[in-house]
Design a protein that fits this description.
By secondary structure, this protein is mainly α. The chain is about 70% helix and about 0% strand. β1 and β2 form a beta hairpin. It binds geranylgeranyl diphosphate.
């Protein structure tokens, strides 16, 4: 899987760089921050999902490239804003100082704003008009109040005591709450990656349904693995602070369900994701491999 992800990175990173080749009207400091955040060494999971979903439905990487870039821009913006002092207040991301540490807080806010807007500009011009409109709708929904931003807002509300203390509820209710937050905060952008890949390939309804079922299971598997890595992972390998969740008494899958049951659930979800795209045959081999890798990774 490492080689496959390297191939995606080698394909997508020059295109991300090109997409930041903006006119002289863009502020130089803002542009530097956008480059810093977007080109930082991430795993490029979301572009990989767009490209591999498209390929699994007979599409080409070239046609799916615009949506793949757009999703990574939304992801990069969300990380920059999540790291801000008003949110998670982190100083390390992707092995480097966070954007507001490397630049300043105002520039980091503007950098996120500009990456978000650019994502839609890139997506709008990368596909034929009908598909582009549909793609912008898919991405906007995944990035908005009902998904990424809404999930983040509920997560903060629980952490800061703005809503009733969830940790006082029975474990079954805590799990429902956790899944609802993460389906929106983390899962929605993964699901949108699968949908955009299918859209770029002109996939029929049956294939779109397979990709969506994969995306839903993958998103939750990813989050459980991310929680486990925060509990047990290595800071150098992760390129970000670990142990933050426990330090803040934050509700996570391992704290509610325990380490081993969480690991088992992650593995079961990875198999569910693999099973969802089994009907696409060998063309979905990368998607299957990624689902299994995501719960076995160390970063
Ligand atoms: C601030 C609007 C707004 C949303 C924030 C994405 C997010 C919502 C918060 C990020 C906090 C976090 C660490 C969530 C866990 C899941 C996650 C998105 C991890 C990072 O994704 P990876 O592992 O990162 O794909 P790389 O750096 O490899 O791209």
């Amino acid at each position: 899987m490492a080689d496959s992800l390297d191939r995606v990175r080698n394909f997508i990173d020059p295109l991300l760089e090109q997409a930041l080749d903006l006119s002289g009207d863009a502020s130089p400091r803002l542009l530097d921050a956008m480059r810093y955040a977007l080109l930082a060494p991430g795993k490029r999971l979301r572009p990989a999902l767009v490209l591999w979903a498209s390929a699994a439905c007979g599409g080409s990487w070239e046609v799916a490239a615009g949506p793949a870039i757009a999703v990574e821009m939304i992801h990069a913006y969300s990380l920059v804003h999540d790291d801000l002092p008003a949110m998670d207040d982190d100083d390390l991301r992707r092995g480097r100082p966070t954007c507001h540490r490397a630049f300043d807080e105002a520039t980091a806010i503007l950098c996120g704003d500009a990456l978000q807007a650019l994502a839609f500009e890139v997506l709008a011009r990368s596909l034929p008009a009908g598909q582009a409109g549909c793609g912008c709708g898919v991405l906007a929904r995944a990035a908005g109040a009902e998904a990424l931003v809404g999930g983040q807002s509920d997560d903060l509300a629980a952490e800061r005591g703005w809503i009733a203390d969830i940790s006082a509820s029975p474990a079954t209710e805590q799990i429902v709450w956790l899944e609802r937050v993460h389906r929106r905060k983390t899962g929605a952008l993964f699901l949108a990656s699968l949908e955009l890949g299918g859209l770029a390939a002109g996939a029929d309804r049956g294939r779109m349904a397979m990709l969506a079922a994969y995306g839903r299971a993958f998103g939750l598997a990813f989050q459980i693995a991310d929680d486990l890595l925060d509990a047990e992972g290595d800071e150098a390998a992760m390129g970000k602070r670990v142990g933050k969740d426990a330090g803040r008494g934050k509700l996570t899958f391992p704290t509610v369900c325990g380490l081993e049951p969480s690991r088992e659930r992650g593995r079961a979800l990875a198999e569910e994701a693999a099973g969802a795209v089994a009907g696409l045959g060998e063309a979905a081999a990368e998607l299957t491999g990624l689902a299994r890798w995501i719960v076995a990774r160390d970063h």
